[in-house]
Amino acid sequence: MVVHMTSRDAAATKQRILDQARGQFAQHGYTAVTVKGIADAAGVSPNLITRYFGGKDGLFLAATQVAIPVSDSFDGERSALGSRLAASIVQRWFGTHGDDPLLVLQRASGERPEAAEALAAFLDENSLEPLHRYLRESGIDDAEARSRAAAIDAFVLGVSTRRRILRWQLGDAAELHTWLSTTIQRLADG
C-alpha cells in the first residue's frame, strides 16, 4: 500500500524540520549539527530533509530566513528611540529563545563565511541603514547620523553576542530593557 502525504501534512512536516533545525543550529552551530540529528528530532527520515531542502546547506538557508520589524521602532520622537528599540530587542531575545533565526546566523557566522556575510548584509539592510536614515531625518547631519547608527548597531550586536552566543544569562527582562534603553539613547543623542 502506498501512502500519499497531503500538502497539509507536507507543510507541517517541513515546519517541524525547520523548527528542529533552528533550535539545533542556534544551540550547536552549523558544523556540529547533522541531518540525521535534525531528522531524528523531527521524527522524519533524513531523506525528507534532502527532498524538501536539498540537504544541510539548503536547510540552513531556510532556517535562517530572518525578519525584524525594526521600522516600528522608528515611529516617534528621537528622545524615546532607546526605549522603543530596547523593547523590540528584549521582546525578540526573550520571545524567540533558541529558535530565533538571527541567533542561528550569529552562532554560525564564526564557522561559515556565507553565514557571516548573510548576517552582515541582513544587519546592514534591516538595522544599520534604517537607523541611519531615521537619525538623519531627525535632524542629525549625515556623517554623524551614520556614526551614531554604527555605534548603536555595534553595541546591540556585541550585547547579543555576549548574552546569547557566549551563553551569559540574559538576566531580568525589565533590567535589560532599562540598561539597553539608556545606553542606546545615549548613543543616539551623541
Short description:
The protein is built from nine helices and no strands.
Rg over CA atoms, rounded to whole Å, is: 19 Å
Low-confidence stretches: none
General shape: elongated
Sketch the topology as an H/E string, one letter per element.
HHHHHHHHH
Count the E strands: 0
**Count of discrete domains:** 2
Average residue pLDDT: 84
Measured as a percent range, the helix fraction is: over 70%
N/C terminus separation: 70 Å
How many helices? The count is 9
Q: Which structural category fits the helices and strands?
A: mainly alpha
The largest sheet, given as strand count, sense and whether it forms a barrel, is: none
Task: Please indicate the percent range of residues in DSSP E strands (runs of 2 or more).
Answer: under 5%
